[in-house]
Amino acid sequence: MGTPVELDRYEQRFRRAGLPLFIEDFSPTHDIFARATPVLALVFVAEVLGAIELTWPWWQNALAVLGGLTVLIGGFGLLNGLRGRPFWSFPTRFGTPELAVFVLLPALLPVMSHFQWKQFFGVALSNLVLIGLVYVVVGYGLIGTTVWGVRRLASELANSVASLIRALPLLLVFSLVLFVNTEMWQVFAGMPVAFIVLSAIAFALLSDLFLVLRLPQELDRIEADAGGSGPPLRRIQRLNLSISLVVRQWMQVLVVSAGVGAFFVAFGMLAISGHLYDEWGIDRGAWSYQFQLLGHPVLISAALIKVAIGIANFTGLYYSISLMTDATYRAEFLDNVSDELRTLFTARAEYLDLRSRLPSSS
User: Fold this and answer.
1) What DSSP assignment string belongs to 16-30?
2) Which runs of E-coded beta strand occur in the chain?
3) C-alpha span between 162 and 151 (Å, rounded)
4) Which of 78, 227, 252, 289 is the 20 to 30 Å CA partner of 344?
5) 95 φψ region: left (φ > 0), alpha (ψ -120 to 50), beta (else)
6) In angstroms, what CA-CA distances link 176 with 133, 170, 184, 280, 319?
């Protein structure tokens, strides 16, 4: 017969894999906001600075800070009393009352000290956004998925490079024609950096939208292949798995895009000389450096970096769509995922069986 320690090992495994919602009875009160208590407490105390005013003398600001701390601590102390806890105890669960106090009480400090209602709404909105981020990041295992990705970076890099090598014949024909095109240089070299960033975000969102539209049928296939003898996933668990797959795809696309961008920076330094900039009427941008390599001048410029990033954006979009449409890429990406998920689904079946046999789970 299993033990609670074994049960905890399974739950830790799901968290490390970025799938915390595979844990039965996963609760925002106990498992999400309670885990984020140190961050929430730090922000809560830091917001006492909302009580100060830079034009006041130091002693008045010191009194305001002390008063603000008194209000914050007293507010939570009173809530502890209403919830049947000792006044000085630290909340071990964050329900709606605790979250409401976290959002509203610090926001009241600017109003109490110098009647700043605009700051009230700003602080309250910021706290609401923070709670939403905590819920998404902790609740859907983004930290675990990212840590998993960092641990698997070497193998992911190898897989992505292998995929890039297989795609190179078509990519190079497509990308090289774009790269030596005068109009492409004129478009990207003259584009503000903010627009380059926005275009990269737009391409990422477009590729994610395509993946999200394809995910339901792919998840059905993965669950049928790797689900084993365990019960079907609940809707919230499928959402957790979907987010994990999107993050894993991001990492592969990022590796491929970065590789293509680095290639075109190197190629552009060798192939696009200073006289071509002048001939094409290309502004070199905010900075440029020229040096000698094997007796020949080599030029790197802000314009070259922008063009390389633009080509990398196109390549990343192409590769992310190929992951779901091209049979070879899809099989490689999803087979990799299925192999790993098969062990997790097996662990989930063992975990559920263990829970059913433990007296505490009844």
Assistant:
1) HTT-GGGSTT--III
2) 288-293, 296-301
3) 19
4) 252
5) beta
6) 41, 10, 11, 17, 16
